[in-house]
Design brief:
The protein is mostly helical. Among the domains are: 33 residues; 51 residues. The chain has six helices and no strands. It is elongated and about 90 Å long. The protein starts with a helix and ends in a 67-residue tail after the last helix. The model has no long low-confidence stretch (mean pLDDT 83).
């Protein structure tokens, strides 16, 4: 991880300064650069290209399970967890469908609009003058329901 950081910053800072800052030897960094890339890293890079290809073919709708199935159909033996990890690491995500929202208000009608009896003054001077919408009274004290605040007028 430290050597990778030095590799990323070597165009900006001298390698010796970066090695001193990260407390690694310059010879260790040079040895790391000379080593061949691991086989697993090469295989992951090839797999990532296939993941991106399948993801783009399906317009970004495929997530890890579907990409896994597509790769299996192509004859590739690869685990779903590995695909998930590579997708997460490279920020490849499937598009999710929009949530269905029920529209209950029809504003395109010619009916008259009901009068605003409360006028946004939620105060009543006598019982049963007005009640808030969507609330029901309890019929019996033992019944479950809303506890208080059901009406705008209170004797207290």
């Amino acid at each position: 991880m430290r050597f990778r950081c030095i590799e990323d910053q070597r165009d900006t800072w001298p390698v010796r300064v970066l090695c001193d800052a990260l407390e690694v030897s310059a010879s260790g960094y040079s040895a790391w650069r000379g080593r061949p890339e691991r086989a697993r890293a090469v295989a992951n890079r090839v797999l990532l290209g296939d993941i991106r290809r399948i993801h783009e073919q399906h317009r970004g709708r495929y997530g890890a399970p579907r990409i896994h199935a597509a790769l299996r159909a192509e004859g590739r033996r690869v685990g779903c967890g590995r695909i998930e990890r590579l997708m997460r690491r490279h920020r490849i995500r499937a598009k999710t469908p929009r949530r269905f929202r029920v529209v209950t208000t029809d504003s395109r009608h010619t009916l008259p609009i009901a009068a605003n009896l409360l006028g946004q003054t939620f105060v009543a001077t006598r019982p049963n003058q007005a009640s808030p919408p969507g609330r029901t009274r309890r019929r019996h004290p033992a019944e479950p329901g809303l506890a208080g605040g059901n009406h705008l007028h209170s004797d207290r």
